[in-house]
């Protein structure tokens, strides 16, 4: 008679809601928007929102784009990818955090006459 082999899967305990989140991350939002920065959870009224603190974009020690803070509700978030600060700073020049505005591209090159 063969002995049965028991396989045990180690499943990490899910983080408790009260622990919140605080890390550097790439946040992808519905509407094809992306933003990078330091993310944390913040209570605003009765809603728990994701706070994204985008650092200053600097080049040669000069601020090219001033940092800012944005808040998002859980329904706006498609994906959150934790990463380190170095990765965020590498992505920062390519991701402005501004929503895509189709009309800006439709009329590019046309005068405002």
Indicate the topology.
Layout: E1 22-29, E2 33-44, E3 47-54, E4 57-59, E5 62-65, E6 68-72, E7 77-83, H1 85-91, H2 102-106
Antiparallel strand pairs: 1-2, 1-7, 2-3, 3-6, 4-5
CATH-scheme architecture of the domain at 17-93: Roll
- The helix fraction, in percent, is 10-25%
CATH class division of the domain at 17-93: Mainly Beta
Q: Name the average pLDDT.
A: 81
Strand order of the largest sheet: 6-3-2-1-7
Shape: extended
- Main structural class: mainly beta
Report the major sheet.
5 strands, antiparallel
Strand content: 35-45%
Q: SSE order, as H and E?
A: EEEEEEEHH
For the terminal residues, how far apart are their CA atoms? 90 Å
| CATH fold descriptor of the domain at 17-93 | SH3 type barrels
Low-confidence stretches: none
User: How many alpha or pi helices?
Assistant: 2
Please compute the radius of gyration using only Cα atoms: 21 Å
Q: Count the E strands.
A: 7
């Amino acid at each position: 008679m063969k002995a049965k082999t028991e396989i045990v899967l180690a499943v990490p305990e899910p983080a408790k809601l009260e622990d919140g989140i605080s890390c550097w991350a790439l946040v992808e939002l519905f509407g094809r928007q992306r933003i990078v920065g330091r993310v944390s959870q913040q209570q605003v009224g009765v809603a728990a929102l994701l706070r994204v603190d985008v650092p200053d974009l600097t080049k040669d020690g000069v601020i090219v784009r001033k940092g800012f803070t944005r808040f998002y509700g859980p329904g706006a978030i498609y994906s959150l990818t934790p990463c380190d600060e170095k990765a965020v700073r590498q992505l920062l020049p390519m991701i402005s955090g501004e929503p895509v505005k189709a009309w800006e591209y439709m009329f590019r090159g046309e005068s405002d006459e």
